[in-house]
Specification:
With 136 residues, this protein is an all-alpha fold. The protein has a domain of 95 residues. The protein has five helices and no strands. Helix 1 packs antiparallel against helix 2, helix 2 packs antiparallel against helix 3 and helix 2 packs parallel to helix 5. It is elongated and about 55 Å long. The two termini are 16 Å apart.
Length: 136
């Protein structure tokens, strides 16, 4: 059985997470455990879906139906990360501004979506991981 289709997105998520943690820690000048989650460079979601699309392209070819499905899923995830989730983050900023810090209302997470650069870097991580898995 070929486990590469299972381990590739996991490794893409893991590698993107290491990069994101390292970049956030360097920016914050301390370990950035509190910044782990949605948003940031690179996009974990983009890395995951692009790794699968790339692996299917390498193994099955660009004309295989599974590649079409994986590419469609990748587009949906990346469009969502760039538009809907960024808008949710903007709304959280406004809502958090309406309440004082002493309010009983918990503060909403403001960093939700991704910029195009963060998505592009996620794609690069995903394709690099898929290439590595495919070659080795």
């Amino acid at each position: 059985m070929d486990y590469s289709y299972v381990i590739t997105p996991f490794f893409a998520w893991f590698i993107a997470g290491i990069f994101k943690f390292t970049i956030n820690s360097v920016k914050a000048r301390q370990f950035a455990f509190g910044l782990i989650g949605y948003g940031g460079l690179p996009s974990n979601h983009s890395a995951i879906v692009s790794s699968m699309a790339a692996l299917i392209a390498f193994r099955e070819g660009l004309t295989h139906p599974a590649f079409g499905v994986s590419l469609t899923l990748a587009f949906i995830v990346m469009l969502d990360a760039n538009s809907l989730r960024r808008e949710v983050g903007k709304h959280a900023v406004i809502i958090n501004g309406l309440f004082s810090s002493e309010s009983a209302c918990p503060k909403l997470r403001e960093r939700m979506g991704h910029t195009r650069l963060e998505i592009l870097c996620g794609i690069l991580v995903g394709v690099a991981v898929a290439t590595f898995i495919h070659l080795f």
